Amino acid sequence: MEVTSFLISVASMGSLGALFSAGLAVANKKLHVEEDPRIVAVLEWLPGANCGGCGYPGCANFAENLVAGRVELSGCPVCDDYSRAEIAAILGIDATSGEKLIARVMCQGGNNEAALKAEYRGIENCTAALLLGGGDKLCEYGCLGFGDCIEACPFDAMYM
C-alpha cells in the first residue's frame, strides 16, 4: 500500500513539474524582450555604485537611459574619465567630462564646527555612536568622526 502511494505521489509531482516547466519555457519564448547589447557593455564600464547621484535609481537604469539618449554621459558623478571615454566609444558619441560632485554637510560637521551635545565614550564606530543617543553632535548631519564611511566607500571619495 505504501509503495503504491509513493509511486502515485512521485508520478503526480513529476508530471506537474514537467507541465509547469513546459509552460515556463513557452512563456519565455513568447514574452522574450530583446535588449540592446550596448546597455550591458555600458553597464560594465559604469562604477556600479548605484548611488543615485545621476538621478536614476541605479547604474542599470542610467545605462538604459544613456543608450536611449535621454541622459548625458556626464550625468554620472562617480564615473572616471577613462570609463567615460570607453562608454563614449561604445555609444559612438563624444566623451564629455562631468563635474565631480562633492557632498556638502550644511553644518560643516567637523569637531571644530559642530557643537557637541554630549561626550561619547564607547565603541569607536559611527553606527554604535548613532544608536546610542543619535551621536554626540547637535547637528544631526554632522560627521561622527569614526571613519566608517571611508571604509565603506569603494571609490576612495572620502578622507579624514
Instruction: Report the strand count.
Output: 0
Structural class: mainly alpha
Secondary-structure element sequence?
HHHHHH
What coarse outline follows from CA principal-axis ratios? Answer: flat
Q: Give the helix tally.
A: 6
Task: Give the integer mean of the pLDDT values.
Answer: 83
The Rg value, from CA coordinates, equals: 26 Å
What keyword list fits this structure?
mainly alpha, 160 residues, single chain, 6 helices
Sum this structure up briefly.
The protein is mostly helical. It has six helices and no strands.
Characterize the structure shown.
- This protein has 160 residues and is mainly alpha-helical.
- The chain has six helices and no strands.
- The protein has helices at 2-30, 37-45, 59-68, 81-91, 126-131, 148-152.
- The chain is flat.
- The mean pLDDT is 83.
Show the helix and strand layout.
Blueprint: H1 2-30, H2 37-45, H3 59-68, H4 81-91, H5 126-131, H6 148-152
Helix pairs in contact: 2-3, 2-4
